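thought: fold this chain, then report.
action: predict
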Amino acid sequence: MFGLYLAVELAANWFRRRRLRNEEWLPLVDEEGKVTGQAPRSVVHGNNEMLHPVVHLHVLNGRNEVFLQKRSLTKAAQPGKWDSAVGGHVAVNETVEAALRRETREELGVDLPGAVPVGRFIVRNDRESEMVFLFVARHEGPFTLDPSEASEGRFWTAAELEPAIRQGLMTPTVPTELSILTRTNRR
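observation:
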């Protein structure tokens, strides 16, 4: 009987390790942004003690309107909420700048070499902890959105943003990010 139990446990561990090996791995960072380790995405997203870096980009047009994307309803976090134009994880051994270029191409279908860093902050919730590296760029569009990431996107005026935030249409990070853009005179 013990032999059968041991065989089942060994097989379960083998399958678990194999699944994790094929999964996306994310760097873990301390509150200064220094890499301290790495872990599979599924583990990181279930443990708010594991701080990991992400990039967010806001795109402004010539009228200082902000382009936001509406998160796909299939997203695990904040489905159907309006969010920054670009948002994504930094991969293991990837620089923040390289992650920003990759995510911008994936989510907007364009290259934005003039993106400027404007801030860094930490977001914690019951599911995860992110160190957000915030950037801003100028572009008039059009953009080619990835339907697995966003169901739609559009430019918002300052007058439209405030009521939408009050109505809960935005992700929790959008007000913080817009405040940083305003404080740094990027908006």
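thought: worth noting. The chain is about 30% helix and 30% strand.
final: tokens above.
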